[in-house]
Write a structure and sequence with these properties.
This protein is α/β, with parallel strands linked by helices. It folds into 2 domains: about 5-45 and about 150-205, Ribosomal protein L1/L10, rRNA-binding domain (Ribulose 1,5 Bisphosphate Carboxylase/Oxygenase); about 60-145, Rossmann fold, CATH 3.40.50.790. Helices cover about 35% and strands about 25% of the residues. A 4-stranded antiparallel beta sheet has the order 8-1-9-10, with helices on one face. It has a 4-stranded parallel beta sheet with strand order 4-3-5-6. A hairpin with a 4-residue loop joins strand 9 (about 195-200) and strand 10 (about 205). The chain is globular and about 50 Å long. Interacts with the GTPase NUG2.
């Protein structure tokens, strides 16, 4: 079970230490989870995403791969975009595709466009579908609030759960939801959790006990 007091203390320490250093950018707070009694070779590998109550990385880079209507909407809200013609040029150039995939954390795509780019951007960067019935801005915010847990070959995984400019209560709620969601994916729930630690990118490491 997650020890709430230890977690609150860890968050307070991270935020306080960040204020002392005062960097020129807003540091991201990451949650690192180490699993135990789990064999990635034999046990079923899991994958799941959860929407956090508060956006951990407001400056997360997202690109819209859109039809004419979505390109127009993206322009209005200041979202980076590429139209079908620009995407066609990429298809023949692996270097450009790699560069594009590295530049953005996530991609959104119109229905008519998504069918044309099944494997273009490589693993982990497959675009999220956006229909014309939903608000593009809402979809962007929803994407920024999502975190994904995926078991690969190693028993350690990390996700962004906040940033030092957020209220401590918001960071706490994000961590709580992330941990509870991950635990629900594990075959023996909390018995498979070895350790949890919170740390600031380029900062100190603070470990709340569990």
């Amino acid at each position: 079970k997650l020890q709430s007091d230890a977690l609150r203390e860890a968050i307070s320490t991270i935020v306080a230490q960040s204020k002392e250093k005062q960097r020129k950018f807003t540091e991201t707070i990451e949650l690192q989870i180490g699993l135990k009694n789990y064999d990635p070779q034999k046990d079923k590998r899991f994958s799941g995403s959860v929407k956090l109550p508060h956006i951990p990385r407001p400056k997360m880079k997202i690109c819209m791969l859109g039809d004419a209507q979505h390109v127009e909407e993206a322009e209005k809200i200041g979202l980076d975009y590429m139209d079908v013609e620009a995407l066609k040029k990429l298809n023949k150039n692996k270097k450009l595709v790699k560069k594009l995939a590295k530049k953005y954390h996530a991609f959104l795509a119109s229905e008519s466009v998504i069918k044309q780019i099944p494997r273009l951007l490589g693993p982990g960067k497959f675009p999220t579908l956006v229909s014309h019935q939903e608000s593009l801005e809402s979809k962007v915010n929803e994407t920024k609030a999502m975190v994904k847990f995926q078991l690969k070959k190693v028993l350690c995984m990390g996700v962004a759960v906040g940033n030092v400019a957020m209220e401590e209560k918001q960071i706490f709620q994000n961590v709580q939801m992330s941990v509870n969601f991950l635990v629900s994916l594990l075959k023996k729930n909390w018995q498979n959790v070895g350790f949890l630690s919170l740390f600031v990118c380029l900062g100190c490491l603070v470990t709340p006990s569990i």
